[in-house]
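User: I'm putting together a teaching handout on how multi-component assemblies are represented. Below are the sequence lines for each component of a complex, exactly as they appear in our records. Could you produce the 3D structure of the whole assembly as structure tokens, so the students can see both representations side by side? Please keep the chain order the same as the input.
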Amino acid sequence: MKHSSQRQPPSTSGDSVPAAARTVFGATLPLAERYRDWLATAGVERGLVGPRETDRLWERHLLNSAVLEPWLPAQGTVLDLGSGAGLPGIVLALLRPDLNVILLEPMLRRVTFLDEVVADLGLPRTTVVRARAEDLAGQRPRSADVVVARAVAPLARLIGWAAPLIAPGGFLLALKGETVTQELTEAHAARCAAGMAPADVHPVTVGGTVTHVVQLTGDRTNVTNTDKSNKSMHSAGHRHHSPPHEGGTGGR
Ligand SMILES: C[S@@+](CC[C@H](N)C(=O)[O-])C[C@H]1O[C@@H](n2cnc3c(N)ncnc32)[C@H](O)[C@@H]1O
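Assistant: Of course. Below is the structure of the complete assembly, with chains in the same order as your input.
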């Protein structure tokens, strides 16, 4: 369903396009701007985005989601568990239109928004699925090469939801803030129960804020160094778009 420009008024906020967005999105920047405008208008009107977020959508939401891009596989299916207003899934679909992207979201209001945005942006390989992760596992077991998640649940619960959806050799990428160490500790039992190797944790700085890309693989044989978590946590490589670790469980 296409929407007229009247439906999407130009943003009047001070959230101008940062230089990093031009670098990250490149030729797809116009679509990223359009998505940002969806968030700032319909997203706020429908209660999917807080009104105070409109001035910081680029750095806190679009660029924060984009940090996952270097970990994405060469091909296959990425499932955004708990996509909400499309984060990080729509951003990843814009950056990698060659991948199949599933936006998994149980709430009708959010699913309607996602359907409209996906149609408006013209993302033919992106599908919106209305379901809870635990219900989808029975319908589409192990169907995702990568499950991504941002701000959905603590790792202990997220692992239980994601693991049955991950194809053999695939992995979970979770974006986490400063609670990452505590969440990893609390997720130990869930991780072991899911047969996942210890996490690789990659700190990345976006707009002066450190976020953590937590990578958990369900296939122990893929992991060549299972004791890298702490090293990664304290490595000096704090920059935007730090690449996956060599020899680790990086994107395929
Ligand atoms: C705080 S929002 C975050 C949305 C988005 N990922 C973001 O970063 O803005 C959490 C989302 O997870 C969804 N969610 C909660 N439980 C879920 C479940 N069991 N399976 C799939 N999605 C779920 C909620 O409906 C909500 O849209």
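A couple of points students might notice: The chain has one domain: 19-233. Residues 81-85, 87, 104-107, 110, 132-134, 150-152, 161 surround S-adenosylmethionine (CB under 6 Å).
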